[in-house]
TrEMBL record:
Role summary: Structural component of the gap junctions.
One biological process term in Gene Ontology: monoatomic ion transmembrane transport
Protein name from the UniProt record: Innexin
Gene name for this UniProt entry: inx
Alphabetized UniProt keyword annotations: Cell junction, Cell membrane, Gap junction, Ion channel, Ion transport, Membrane, Transmembrane, Transmembrane helix, Transport
KW Transcription (keyword) present: no
Record field: compositional bias (Basic and acidic residues): 291-303
Membrane topology: Multi-pass membrane protein
Pfam families with a match to the protein in the record: Innexin (PF00876)
Subcellular location: Cell junction, Gap junction; Cell membrane
Length: 311
């Protein structure tokens, strides 16, 4: 009995450790047309290049807007003002420029909105291209993974392994001595798929998060474009020292594009400086439109702002 058991165990060990040589590897065999399903993996060697190109192109909207901002903004640095005279010169020119170009910044505003739409379009395009790149297996990747994690059984195949197999059959063709083409099917290990499955799973949820944030951003911009009180609150966030009535006058006397320019200038300026700039802009516009005298509230505010000591 012991001898028979040892013989069976030895034979089983010989077969076990020679899988693919003495016996066929499980789930890998000869492809039979109409009876077997075959899935060709053609993306494997191009994953690195695909991710690199995607990273460069998705950065394009920001770079475009960065170049447009540098071409449209005034050539002033508002972060290193050491003397009061420096600020006065720049403020006077900036007020003059804003007054001369008042209501004529729509082109810049539309450029910004187009770059926002370009970012959303690129995001949707890359989701579709990634699905095509992976042979149509990316569209439900995250949903299948989430379902597998909550309803997995012993016989359930992981969607990560199904889409990114670690072991597969390679088809190698060579010419025989007689000139015919022969095919050879060795086993191939794809260890990099241990990382690819996690990379693309992260990309799936990252795309979803970015798309959701982009929709919220679009809703936010729609509210700002259509609602004056919302623009006043947004400007108040950037210019906290400006009184409410001054902000109200600015919103009523300037259009959407002027507000957009000022909101882009505000982050580069000191709160005291942006408050003085808004006050001066409101005063110049009101004075230019035939107001009898300078409003007392604006005069008091400008006087208090001018009392700030600069280094």
């Amino acid at each position: 009995m012991d001898t028979t058991f040892r013989t069976l165990l030895s034979s089983s060990s010989d077969i076990l450790f020679q899988v693919g040589k003495n016996v066929i590897y499980p789930n890998l065999g000869q492809f039979v047309e109409g009876q077997s399903s075959k899935r060709e993996i053609s993306y494997y060697q191009w994953v690195t290049f695909f991710l690199l190109i995607e990273a460069l192109v998705i950065y394009l909207p920001r770079q475009i807007w960065h170049q447009l901002t540098h071409s449209q903004c005034l050539p002033f640095d508002f972060t290193n003002l050491r003397r009061r005279e420096d600020w006065e010169d720049k403020k006077n020119f900036l007020v003059w420029h804003m007054k001369q170009t008042r209501g004529n910044h729509e082109y810049w505003l539309w450029q910004y909105l187009l770059t926002e739409l370009l970012a959303i379009a690129l995001l949707a395009s890359f989701f579709i291209l990634t699905d095509v790149f992976l042979g149509g297996d990316f569209y439900n990747y995250g949903i299948d993974w989430f379902s597998f994690m909550h309803n997995a059984t012993n016989n359930t195949v992981s969607p990560m392994t199904a889409r990114f197999p670690r072991l597969t059959v390679c088809k190698l063709q060579y010419h025989s001595r007689g000139g015919s083409i022969n095919s050879y099917y060795p086993l191939c290990l794809l260890p990099i798929n241990c990382f690819n499955d996690k990379i693309f799973l992260f990309l799936y949820f990252w795309y979803c998060v970015l798309f959701g944030l982009s929709l919220l951003r679009g809703l936010y911009m729609t509210v700002l474009v259509t609602c004056k009180p919302a623009r006043r609150l947004r400007l108040k966030f950037s210019a906290k020292l400006v009184p409410e009535d001054t902000l109200e006058r600015f919103i009523n006397s300037h259009n959407l594009s002027d507000w957009f320019v000022l909101c882009n200038l505000a982050p580069t300026m000191d709160p005291v400086l942006i408050a003085e700039l808004v006050t001066q802009l409101v005063y110049e516009v009101q004075g230019g439109e035939g107001s009898d005298s300078k409003p007392s509230r604006l005069g008091e505010q400008k006087k208090s702002l001018q009392s700030v000591n600069y280094i």
